[in-house]
Amino acid sequence: MNATVHSVDEAKLSEYLKQHVPGFYGPVKSTKFKTGQSNPTFLLETVGKKFVLRKKPPGKLLPSAHAVDREYKVLKALGNTNVPVPEVFHLCEDETTIGSIFYVMEYIDGRIFWDPTLPEVGNLERQEIYEATNKVLASLHKIDIEKAGLSDFGKPGSYFERQVHRWIKQYRAAETTHYDEVESLIQWLMENMPKDDGMVSIVHGDYRLYNMIFDHKQTKLLAVLDWELSTLGHPYADLAYQCMTWHIPQIGITPGLFGLDVKSLGIPSEQEYTRSYCQKMKIEKIPDWSFYLAFGFFRLAGIAQGVYKRSLQGNASADNAKGLGAAVPILGQIGLQIINNGE
Q1: What are the φ/ψ torsions at residue 290 (nearest 5 degrees)?
Q2: Are strands 102-106 and 221-224 parallel, antiparallel or unpaired?
Q3: Residues 129-148: pLDDT tens digits?
Q4: Which fold has domain 10-106?
Q5: Are 53 and 41 spatial neighbours (Cβ–Cβ below 8 Å)?
Q6: Phi/psi zone of residue 15: left (φ > 0), alpha (ψ -120 to 50 degrees), beta?
Q7: Where are the domains positioned within the chain?
Q8: pLDDT digits (tens, 9 = 90+) for 85-118
Q9: How far is CA 88 from the centre of its chain?
Q10: All residues at 6 or more sequence positions from 183 whose CB lies less than 8 Å from its CB, including other chains
């Protein structure tokens, strides 16, 4: 991959940010974070202060993908709620500045847990960390959309029907190989669509442990990151996406909890996690749980396929993008197993 694909003109950026971000003083040194599959993310270091920059990747992109302007909008709105997010300072929609639109936000120093077994901490802290993710998720889904100024952030109602069709379209646009597992999963989702129950909330779209920053010494959740896929939608989509962790094996591109004795680790079971969420949301039970999980796996397969396609085109953001191509049929297979087991 060309090394300049994911770089920025530091001198030009520094001059621009001096004029648009209060308290910004150049020169700036930019370093791309190795992680992040979708929108290239950079640490900006200046004299005495750090910032983070997120930008659209270069090249031909899938329709409606990489919407950093939507990310900026939801982060700005959530800054006034009890959902912890980084403070955002500026959105630049002029592509001539650094080659694509971008925004600048607060740098938050903390811990990111990449492995859901949380090997870095003990049992009590594991329990507290999972409970913190559960509490924040419920807080997000309880936000008054109108008061937050996000009434126009998505279409209310028929969320899963629209999402299934959207991700089929995204998947087809990025498709490189025919996978029977994914095709069977698509067919099942189309034939088993639950009736719309009218529930609408702000949804994160990629609510996973590795998209959160925790305090270095406490189990406090400091910030939820990566809001690119956020919209108005059904809260069960976020819950199911988080609960996919319990169905993914420990060994793989994204480590999971499948097959592990989570109780011995101090980690709640999937049932305990969903029960805790339901109590916070005052929900008695969740019907059609298999559908929500299966949809989550199809959606993740679509995301992985998109990243892999970008890697073939030379404009994927993360180093392991090519490896995600192999994950696509595996994700389809897990989705089918959930359906067959009637979870």
Answers
A1: -60, -40
A2: unpaired
A3: 999 999 999 999 999 999 99
A4: Phosphorylase Kinase; domain 1 (3.30.200)
A5: yes
A6: alpha
A7: 10-106
A8: 999 999 999 989 998 899 999 999 999 999 999 9
A9: 18
A10: none
